[in-house]
């Protein structure tokens, strides 16, 4: 019995899920501590800062990560060094460009005395330090994903998320430091993970001499589409925060309130992210071997099984939404509880639609159609921004922002299936049959 449990525990989907759940748990504890250490305005500024940082990180690493994972899958050690060295050099150049732009804009705002939300100001000044500190461990993620080494991925991520969580616990009970000190500590714990990845030669810094112009061009040519897709995907969520932050009516307090149901939604999406990480290399390998039927079967089974798993979770979240919101936000948000509960219940509908939307994009990338995936996400992003502007500046409603999320996701599902039907004749009805076949042969898949 123990041997079987150990065997199942090594299965890649479950390893990926455990890695993401462990990191997410630390992130959840950190989020809860921050809601209790910072008032609504300051917490809203922190959320805006970290959302912008996450978005720009996707811009930096989106150019190389998807293409690196695709190239690293099955590559020998010599080719791995070339790929890692090339991706590190590209990301280093991007870091220098972004540092110049951030500090230039910050300097102009200070010189002309232009007033903006302080969260934007914090980002412009402090992000270059954070970007330098997380460069190496982020670049190493490509290698971990390609090797399906989710245990190592988990340990590296916990080394910074866990340390940050420990700091926040000390800050809650003893230190009582403010937002600036919290930002600096976030920079420091990211540097710990990066130094570790550099020492272990996982990040590509020591392989810069193996970087070739040809490899850099290959990564960029594929990555320019996947980067656009990742940026647009991030904007689908983060544009809500950016646009709320521009509103004189909602402002930082609005960001803080919206962040709570959004965080709960992100937690529900963790399994999806984990399975997508394992599905992409598998589908890519099948597609590169010319086995389109096998590629489609993986797609059908993943979509069906994950949607089935999500249903009871989404239903339970809908029913107990009020308790979940209060648990995460604390008494500071008690006066906004009815509003935040309604927003989260809208998001539970969005969660049920996510597997179909996410895996149509993963499949388009796997069959080497990143351009079509980019078009799909760009349409969704454009629609979301329009809906957000209407929700924030016309209706002045956070609930309307959440409803817009459901609407653009439906649009993405329709467009994704439209492209896949044209390219490889994907049929929606096969999702059920392949999922049932997967369940019947679960023992074989785990083996």
Write the layout of secondary structure elements.
Blueprint lengths: L1 H8 L2 H26 L2 H23 L2 H8 L4 H36 L5 H16 L1 H12 L3 H26 L3 H21 L13 H34 L4 H18 L1 H19 L3 H28 L1 H9 L7 H30 L3 H25 L3 H27 L5 H11 L1 H5 L1
Helix pairs in contact: 2-8, 2-12, 3-6, 3-10, 3-11, 4-5, 4-7, 4-10, 5-6, 5-7, 5-10, 6-9, 7-8, 7-9, 8-9, 10-11, 10-16, 11-14, 11-15, 12-13, 12-15, 13-15, 13-18, 14-15, 15-16, 15-17, 16-17
Question: Can you describe this structure?
Answer:
- By secondary structure, the protein is mainly alpha-helical.
- It has one domain.
- It is built from 19 helices and no strands.
- The longest helix is centred in the first third of the chain and has 36 residues.
- It is globular, with a radius of gyration of 22 Å.
- The two termini are about 15 Å apart.
Overall shape: it is globular
The overall average pLDDT, rounded, is: 87
- Strand fraction: under 5%
Count the DSSP helices. 19
Secondary-structure element pattern, one letter each: HHHHHHHHHHHHHHHHHHH
Described by strand count, sense and barrel closure, the largest sheet is: none
Distance between the termini: 15 Å
- Poorly predicted runs of 5 or more residues: 1-10, 443-447
What helical percentage do the residues reach? Answer: over 70%
- Tell me the number of strands: 0
Rg, nearest Å: 22 Å
Helix-strand category: mainly alpha
Main location: membrane
Keywords: Cell membrane, Membrane, Transmembrane, Transmembrane helix
Protein name: Membrane protein involved in the export of O-antigen and teichoic acid
Membrane topology: Multi-pass membrane protein
């Amino acid at each position: 019995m123990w041997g079987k449990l150990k065997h199942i525990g090594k299965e890649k989907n479950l390893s990926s899920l455990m890695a993401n759940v462990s990191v997410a748990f630390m992130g959840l504890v950190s989020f809860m501590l921050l809601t209790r250490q910072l008032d609504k305005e300051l917490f809203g500024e922190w959320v805006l800062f970290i959302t912008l940082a996450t978005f720009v990180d996707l811009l930096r690493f989106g150019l190389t990560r998807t293409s690196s994972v695709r190239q690293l899958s099955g590559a020998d050690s010599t080719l791995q060094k070339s790929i890692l060295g090339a991706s590190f050099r590209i990301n280093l150049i991007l870091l220098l460009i972004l540092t110049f732009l951030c500090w230039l804009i910050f300097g102009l705002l200070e010189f002309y005395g232009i007033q903006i939300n302080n969260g934007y100001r914090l980002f412009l000044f402090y992000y270059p330090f954070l970007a330098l500190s997380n460069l190496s461990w982020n670049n190493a993620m490509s290698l971990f994903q390609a090797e399906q080494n989710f245990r190592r991925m988990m340990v590296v991520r916990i080394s910074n998320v866990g340390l940050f969580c420990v700091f926040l616990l000390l800050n809650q009970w003893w230190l009582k430091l403010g937002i600036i000190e919290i930002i600096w500590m976030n920079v420091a714990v990211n540097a710990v993970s990066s130094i570790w990845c550099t020492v272990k030669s996982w990040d590509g810094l020591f392989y810069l001499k193996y970087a070739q112009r040809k490899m850099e061009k290959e990564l960029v040519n594929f990555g320019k589409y996947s980067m656009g897709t990742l940026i647009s995907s991030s904007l689908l969520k983060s544009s809500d925060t950016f646009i709320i932050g521009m509103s004189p009516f909602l402002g930082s307090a609005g960001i803080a309130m919206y962040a709570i149901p959004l965080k709960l939604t992100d937690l529900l999406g963790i399994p999806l992210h984990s399975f997508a990480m394992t599905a992409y290399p598998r589908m890519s390998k099948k597609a590169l071997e010319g086995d389109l039927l096998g590629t489609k079967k993986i797609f059908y089974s993943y979509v069906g099984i994950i949607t089935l798993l999500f249903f009871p979770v989404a239903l339970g979240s809908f029913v107990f939404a009020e308790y979940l919101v209060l648990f995460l936000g604390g008494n500071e948000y008690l006066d906004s509880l009815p509003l935040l509960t309604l927003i989260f219940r809208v998001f539970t509908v969005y969660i049920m639609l996510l597997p179909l939307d996410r895996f149509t994009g993963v499949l388009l990338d796997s069959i080497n159609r990143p351009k079509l995936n980019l078009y799909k996400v760009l349409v969704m992003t454009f629609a979301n921004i329009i809906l957000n502007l209407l929700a924030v500046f016309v209706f002045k409603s956070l609930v309307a922002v959440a409803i817009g999320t459901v609407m653009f996701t439906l649009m993405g599902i329709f467009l994704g299936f439209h492209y896949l039907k044209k390219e490889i004749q994907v049929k929606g009805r096969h999702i059920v049959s392949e999922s049932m076949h997967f369940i019947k042969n679960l023992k074989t898949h785990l083996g």
